[in-house]
Design brief:
The complex is a heterodimer. Helices cover 76% and strands 0% of the residues of chain A. Chain A contains 11 helices and no strands. In chain A, helix 3 packs antiparallel against helix 8 and helix 6 crosses helix 8. The longest helix of chain A is centred in the first third of the chain and has 35 residues. By secondary structure, chain B is an alpha+beta fold. A 6-stranded mixed beta sheet of chain B has the order 6-7-8-3-9-10, sandwiched between helices. Chain B is elongated and about 75 Å long. The chains are: A mainly alpha, B alpha+beta.
């Protein structure tokens, strides 16, 4: 049988799709190196907008926002990963229990619920329990929506690990805890890392929910960029966007590589 | 000889399905004992009950007199060689073998020395620092053995450990396993569906079917004196014939063979009536006048043997094996032959 590549029109269609997907990103990346102050006319290659991000008038704002974004992403991803590991072990090694599919749906539902609904719900929830919006509310919201993203790669990995490894450990005088710590956890590690990185990126990137629960004066990078753009698009936004893109690509690639190495060490 | 494992009316149920129907058997210390049966007969379930991976629903399992049914797997002095070996992929061969010793609290240098000796025993010292994935199937198998033997268990459980190997390796491993068992003096409980494996290695065999033990005995016992149709049919090749038991006197029964000829054979505890006998194809010879009359349909050349596929005058298929020898005069296909039963060749079955 011929592969899909041999169908007529495959190449133009593929190229067309890739252009639609990536042309805007490429334009932003190119114009981040624009020497002129206009966002549409090319004024020669320059690093000036990158310098502007770190030293310009908006630099303190961006720096504070970047610090918030990174620290929230780190804490939220770590917490969400820990919860996701526990959930995955319970779901996959817990045998049959009542409401298993319902539990599975509940863990993954946040992936399907429109973000705006989660955002509004979080805001109402926080104000109902009397929590002032700010750093803490952003963090709590991020932990919540990061869990399914961390869960998926971890659960996929665990599904592929036969339970005979733990049985072998138990048979060789390991307690339940030792079997988990010395055998299952190291075998799950590629999935855990992959889940962590995915959660990290999702948190770093989030705008809608963050914007609802952040409170006045508190900014993460996406909300800071949005705030900046509202006063007119300047080329420094393209520079900061390009840097965020680079960070995202780096982490996603890392997540992919970790998973691939994990696949090789299995069996 | 003391009893290593005493299994008393063990029942295992999964919901409404019953995997073991009151299994009782006792295994002596230093014995190579095999649980043999087709897949789904309950042999692996029984092994997992002994290891502690499954709870027994009823009955008890005693290890050197101690009831172990309530103990967690890590508190049972038995170790398992798994079917797919289950070597820890992120640990070296040496770390794998030393794992059980580490869990028992042995210090680093002691356990590495002991693990090293175990690897020597299975001829894998050169591979101590490799990862399991870098070894061949046969080598992984030997690492799994060394790992399970290292903590000096009282009983070693082997769950079809040879099934993933190719034929040549499997045959070599049979000899090695038997040697290891004699060297270490540890009781081996070996699970297999391969009757040849069971016959060549075991001191005793328990033939299992549908969650029940059908017969326990030496290889010779179960091959030559099967108690029922299942055992006769499962172990080796046999001819099962429906016969009429004419009368039973003490230990012997008079049996009317198809075709009307009467013979005497050992009684099987059942009275007169319709029963079955088993006749091994190699316990027959061609004769001028015999106990059975058959027509030769085909002759199959097997190298060491010749197999005659015949049909009795009463219609049943009947197989005969003759040793391949220059003196063997072969009947032509289509000809009628008389078959003589050797003394004791016909075995009356209980069901």
């Amino acid at each position: 049988m011929k592969g899909v590549r041999h169908y007529p029109g495959f190449l133009p269609m593929a190229v067309g799709c890739l252009v639609i997907l990536y042309a805007p990103l490429v334009v932003v990346m190119i114009y981040s190196f624009n020497g002129s102050t206009s966002i549409t006319t090319w004024g020669g290659f320059s690093w000036r907008w990158y310098a502007d991000v770190f030293t310009g008038p908006e630099a303190p704002r961006f720096k504070a926002a970047a610090w918030n974004s990174l620290s929230i992403a780190l804490i939220a991803a770590t917490t969400a990963t820990a919860i996701a590991v526990a959930a995955a072990v319970a779901m996959i090694r817990g045998g049959r229990f009542r409401g298993k599919s319902a539990t599975f749906a509940l863990i993954n539902l946040p992936l399907m619920v429109p973000e705006i609904v989660v955002a509004v719900a979080c805001l109402i929830f926080f104000s109902t329990i009397g929590l002032t919006t700010g750093y803490l509310t952003i963090l709590l919201a991020h932990i919540t929506f990061c869990i399914p993203f961390a869960y998926l790669p971890i659960a996929a990995r665990l599904q592929g690990i036969e339970d005979t490894y733990e049985q072998a450990a138990r048979d060789l005088y390991a307690t339940r805890g030792q079997a988990f710590r010395l055998i299952l956890l190291p075998l799950m590690m590629p999935g855990i890392l992959s889940g962590f990185l995915l959660a990290f990126i999702i948190s770093l990137d989030d705008f809608i929910i963050t914007n609802f629960v952040k409170g006045a004066g508190m900014e993460t990078l996406p909300t800071a960029i949005f705030g900046s753009v509202k006063q007119g698009i300047k080329p420094n936004i393209m520079a900061i966007s390009t840097m965020m893109l680079a960070v995202s690509v780096f982490f996603v690639t890392l997540s992919y590589l970790v998973n691939r190495i994990g696949q090789r060490t299995r069996s | 000889m003391s009893t290593a494992i005493d299994i008393r009316s063990v029942v295992k149920r999964y919901g409404t399905a019953t995997a073991l129907h009151g299994v009782s058997l006792s295994i002596s210390d230093n014995e190579f004992f095999t649980l043999l049966g087709p897949s789904g007969c309950g042999k692996t379930t029984l092994l997992r009950c002994i290891a502690g991976f499954e709870d027994v629903t009823e009955g008890e399992i005693r290890l050197f007199g101690q009831d172990i049914a309530a103990l967690e797997p890590n508190h049972r002095p038995v170790n398992t060689v798994f079917q797919q070996y289950a070597l820890f992929p992120h640990m070296t061969v040496l770390e794998n073998v030393a794992f059980g010793l580490k869990m028992k609290g042995m210090g680093l240098s002691d356990r590495n020395a002991r693990a090293g000796r175990m690897l020597e025993m299975v001829h894998l010292s050169a591979f101590a620092d490799r990862l399991p994935a870098q070894l061949s199937g046969g080598q992984q198998q030997r690492v799994a053995l060394a790992r399970a033997l290292a903590p000096e268990p009282k009983v070693l459980l082997l769950d079809e450990p040879l099934s993933a190997l190719d034929l040549k390796l499997r045959q070599a491993m049979r000899v090695e396993l038997k040697t290891l068992q004699e060297q270490t003096g540890i009781t081996f409980i070996f699970v297999t569906h391969d009757q040849e494996e069971a016959l060549t290695m075991s001191d005793r065999i328990a033939v299992m079917s549908q969650g029940r033990v059908q017969q326990i005995g030496t290889a010779r016992d179960i091959y030559e004196a099967p108690v029922n149709r299942f055992v006769a049919d499962f172990i080796g090749e046999t001819n099962l014939l429906e016969v009429v038991v004419d009368r039973v006197e003490g230990d012997s029964a008079r049996v009317i063979l198809p075709g009307g000829h009467a013979i005497t054979c050992a009684a099987a505890g059942n009275g007169p009536g319709k029963h079955h006998i088993s006749i091994r194809p190699e316990r027959l010879s061609l004769a001028a006048t015999g106990d059975l009359t058959a027509t030769v349909e085909r002759i199959v050349y097997l190298g060491t043997d010749l197999q005659l596929l015949t049909r009795l005058t009463t219609g049943e298929e009947f197989h005969v094996r003759l040793q391949n020898s220059a003196r063997t005069e072969l009947p032509a296909p289509g000809s009628t032959v008389a078959l003589h039963l050797e003394e004791g060749a016909a075995r009356l079955l209980a069901d």
